[in-house]
Specification:
By secondary structure, this protein is an alpha+beta fold. It has 4 helices and 10 strands; from the N terminus they run E-E-E-H-E-H-H-E-H-E-E-E-E-E. It has a single domain, classed as Endonuclease/exonuclease/phosphatase (Deoxyribonuclease I, Chain A, 4-Layer Sandwich).
Length: 216
């Protein structure tokens, strides 16, 4: 009998801080053997002048502070995290690295490119994973590029984004849980968005084996 968790990329609302985040949403739930954190992370945006870069930096800082705090239970963090961690997590790395909005190029090289695939965002995500002692459930099991089923977001089916895809929806888990990870899958595929159910995101699932009697 396996424990099964499935999260669709819905935008969920729950505030764990006194400050309202208009474009960042959080649910935190406690289960018998882990805490479950679901977030919709704010999009990084294209321009520093719109304060979107600063907003995303603050968000990442607060997430880092949360995941490094001590807890008696492991963490599972899931949802639309709005970042593609590595080149393997996008279908066209060169396209996303050089993407611009109306020709605008941010002055800082690390802020350039597609929101969610800028070097600055990817570095901060690496820090969150390493300092929080977390692993990417999907990448833990899937080491190679899968051009059909390896991405959770797909761009507009018409125009330059057709067929351009990113993996920005995740199940992240504490390293303590890695031996319990049975499966982590994305339930959408192909350029025609089979299984996306009208959204530009597809569902993602994580399957865990039951905890052993001596585990947290």
């Amino acid at each position: 009998m396996f424990q099964y968790i499935c999260i669709h990329s819905y935008h969920l609302y729950f505030l764990v801080a006194c400050k309202h985040e208009p474009d960042g949403r959080v649910i935190l739930a406690e289960f018998e053997s882990f805490h479950l954190l679901n977030t919709y992370a704010p999009n990084n945006g294209w321009k520093e002048e719109e304060n979107s870069f600063q907003r995303r930096r603050k968000w990442d800082k607060r997430i880092l502070e949360f995941v490094v705090q001590s807890s008696d239970k492991p963490l599972i963090w899931c949802g639309d995290l709005n970042v593609s961690h590595q080149e393997i997590d996008v279908s066209h790395p060169d396209f996303f690295s050089s993407a611009k909005l109306n020709g605008y190029i941010p002055p800082n090289k690390e802020d350039r490119g597609q929101p969610g695939f800028t070097l600055a965002e990817r570095k901060r995500f690496s820090t969150i994973l390493s300092e929080g002692k977390l692993i990417d459930g999907y990448r833990f099991l899937h080491k190679e590029t899968d051009m059909e089923c390896g991405f959770s977001w797909s761009g507009n089916p018409i125009g330059k984004y057709r067929g351009k895809r990113m993996r920005i929806d995740y199940f992240i888990a504490s390293e303590k849980l890695k031996d319990r990870i049975v499966a982590c899958e994305m339930h959408g595929k192909g350029i025609e968005l089979q299984g996306f159910f009208g959204s530009d995101h597809c569902p993602v699932s994580l399957e865990l084996s039951p905890p052993s009697t001596n585990s947290n």
